[in-house]
Design a protein that fits this description.
The complex is a heterodimer of chains A (about 290) and B (about 325). Chain A has about 290 residues and is an alpha/beta fold. Chain A has a domain of about 50 residues. Chain A is about 40% helix and about 20% strand. In chain A, the strands form 2 sheets. A 6-stranded mixed beta sheet of chain A has the order 6-7-8-3-9-10, sandwiched between helices. Chain A is globular. Chain B is α/β, with parallel strands linked by helices and about 325 residues long. Chain B folds into 2 domains: about 220 residues, 3-Layer(aba) Sandwich (Rossmann fold); about 35 residues, no CATH class. Chain B has 12 helices and 10 strands. A 6-stranded mixed beta sheet of chain B has the order 6-7-8-3-9-10, with helices on both faces. The N terminus of chain B is likely disordered. Classes of the chains: A alpha/beta (about 290), B alpha/beta (about 325).
Chain lengths: ~290, ~325
């Protein structure tokens, strides 16, 4: 499923003293099966943007095409769109409400009009995907641990079997292992079910590790768009808008600035490890580089 | 009723003192450890008493059914001994549910121990008459800035704490100004908090605590909801308060990079403190940390992996700069 945004503008509280333009002429295309990272400082428009993707917020002007159809057409089936684009908000566990985990996850599919049996089947499948054990089904969702709650809440969206999964900072507040579990889960869903994933994140290290394409938002506009390597080549610009490049990228640039011949476009620990190993194998090159300077 | 309990406690403690003194005579003849020595040690401990101390601190959450019968008891903090000295920067790590926040909530008497004792500034948190003093000694900052800001103008929000303490109005204004200066938010004093960024809001929340002149600030995941620059702002502010103002800092976090500045790191698991040491000591144990669902800073991880590949690097490298210097040495030798 492809989503195309054309000259999208969104203005909050238009015509009041609090008027604020949250999106400015955004043009984007999210292609089928992509794993996209969306980064930007607080207030850059990320959350507003993702709320447009399933029609929760209606653009002030511009068009949004899903599979070639403009969702702002009066005849467009908005309910169908919400089943196709699953949105996982920040701290989704705050939205858990049912008496037990299974019922909570059934809520979405039941609202889609599925029968109790179908909904339960979907819910069980989704819970298995996020790694929640059968013996938790009857537990109150509030008795789960922090990481489990988060996963149960994500299962609630997965049970609707969306074609596009949008997650707003799904790892905020989780411990390092919990973070890895969630990111591993998302990455597996993307790989195995080929769903399109949009991941909003504040961790440059995480996006560098997992996504294929990064979109950088600043003041409501798309500032950069490209592969992690392309985007993280713009370290100065990123720093100016309150972002950064991954820690290892700083290391490799630091080495490179000392005249050591290393690649400057390294973005993950694994790449850095290989690059340094390669370098140490022929360490005499350093001397030559120093002479060359 | 409370007063009786207090008096009891006092007679109890004097009885103990009497007991030790009696024992002292005996020990002289019986060759036991001198009780006077013990007494001296005890006094010394009292003088150099840490700002936050606990002894066998235990806290249990009890879940009751509708009839009030106990269904389940969960021990969130289990026999924790702490001794944090004034001016220290302490970091507490631990996975979700390891008991960090429950422990933190004991540090300003939001929770009282089920068993054991917590002393804040030398005062037992169970003693109700010290409650205000304790809350003034140890201020708390929580994860979500939006849940902590109550006023519609920044400076009024910061003044809320001292106003509640009964500080005279003129002094409140002085304190507001000095606190906002300390967190570098003075130019926003007349702004509305809801127009600020996450990092700025969190700094206002910190200023609100600073205005109460605490000796100690406890921050429970203050950066969890912030972007990289917001995180950086908050950590820089916290470090400045610690280094310049000498405020004791207790920082709970899931970001390993924020811990490298601490004097001491505690790792919690299952309600207990399972590791403690300097950041270097803690982060040199990569595998143990992973077993506790934790991680190490990226620099430490890379160094550790390179070490496994046979590169000769010291243990516990904490920052990319350190790693860079070490690598340059290896490459250019």
């Amino acid at each position: 499923m492809s989503i195309k945004l054309e000259h999208l503008n969104y203005i909050y509280s238009q015509g009041t003293a609090y008027e604020k333009q949250a999106l400015r002429d955004v043009c984007l295309e999210l292609r089928d099966g992509e794993f996209v990272g969306l980064i930007g400082h607080t207030g850059s428009g990320k959350s507003t943007l993702i709320q447009h993707l399933n029609g929760l917020v209606r653009a002030t002007s511009g068009a949004l095409y899903v599979d070639g159809k403009n969702i702002y057409d009066s005849s467009y089936n908005m309910k169908g769109l919400r089943a196709k684009v699953g949105l996982v908000f920040q701290y989704p566990e705050y939205q858990l409400f049912e008496v037990n985990v299974l019922k909570d996850v059934c809520f979405g599919p039941k609202n889609q009009g599925l029968t109790d049996e179908e909904a339960e089947e979907r819910a069980k499948k989704a819970l298995a995907q996020v790694g929640i054990d059968e013996n938790c089904y009857e537990q109150s969702p509030f008795d789960l641990s922090g990481g489990q709650k988060r996963r149960a809440a994500i299962a609630g969206v997965l049970a609707m079997e969306p074609e596009v999964l949008v997650l707003d900072e799904p790892t905020a507040g989780l411990d390092p292992r919990g973070r890895l579990e969630i990111l591993g889960l998302i990455s597996r869903l993307h790989r195995e079910r080929r769903i399109t994933v949009v991941l909003v994140s504040h961790s440059m290290e995480d996006v560098a590790e997992y996504v294929e394409r990064i979109i950088v938002m600043n003041k409501g506009s798309v500032m950069l768009d490209g592969t992690p390597k392309e985007v993280f080549a713009h370290d100065k610009e990123l720093e100016q808008v309150g972002l950064a490049v991954p820690q290892v990228t700083y290391l490799m640039r630091g080495l490179s600035e000392l005249g050591i011949p290393v690649r400057r476009d390294v973005t993950t620990v694994e790449e850095a490890r290989e690059e340094i190993r390669r370098l140490l194998k022929r360490r005499e090159t350093c001397g030559q580089a120093a002479e060359g300077q | 009723m409370w007063n009786y309990a207090r008096r009891d406690a006092k007679t109890w403690s004097s009885a103990i003192t009497g007991l030790t003194l009696q024992n002292e005579d005996k020990s002289a003849t019986m060759g036991m450890i001198s009780a006077r020595q013990q007494c001296r040690l005890y006094r010394k401990r009292e003088q150099s008493m840490g700002i936050i101390q606990s002894s066998k601190l235990t806290f249990e959450y009890t879940k009751k059914d509708e009839e009030g019968n106990i269904e389940e008891v969960k021990r969130a903090v289990d026999g924790v001994d702490l001794d944090i000295h004034p001016g220290q920067f302490i970091a507490i790590l631990g996975h979700n549910g390891s008991g960090k926040s429950t422990l933190a909530k004991h540090m300003n008497a939001i929770l009282l121990p089920t068993e054991g004792t917590m002393w804040v500034g030398g005062k037992d948190t169970k003693a109700e008459e010290y409650l205000w003093e304790i809350r003034q000694t140890a201020g708390m900052v929580f994860q979500n800035p939006d849940n902590q800001i109550i006023a519609s103008v920044v400076e009024e929000d910061v003044g809320f704490g001292p106003e509640n303490l009964g500080v005279p109005t003129l002094e409140i204004w002085d304190r507001v100004e000095e606190s906002l200066k300390a967190v570098d938010m003075l130019e926003y004093r007349r702004h509305s908090p809801n127009k600020l960024s996450g990092g700025q809001k969190q700094r206002v929340a910190i200023a609100g605590v600073v205005a109460m002149h605490p000796k100690c600030i406890v921050l429970d995941e203050p950066t969890a909801m912030l972007d990289p620059s917001g995180r950086h702002e908050v950590i820089r502010t916290v470090r400045a308060l610690n280094e310049v103002e000498g405020v004791t800092v207790i920082l709970i976090t899931h970001y390993m990079e924020e811990v490298v500045w601490a004097d001491r790191v505690f790792v919690m698991d299952d309600g207990k403190i399972v590791m403690q040491g300097t950041p270097r000591e803690i982060f040199s144990q990569v595998e143990t940390l992973k077993a506790y669902r934790l991680d190490v800073p990226q620099a430490t991880l890379l160094a550790w992996e390179l070490k496994h590949d046979g590169v000769d690097l010291p243990d516990g490298i904490l920052t990319m700069d350190e790693l860079k210097d070490e690598l340059v040495k290896r490459i250019c030798q």
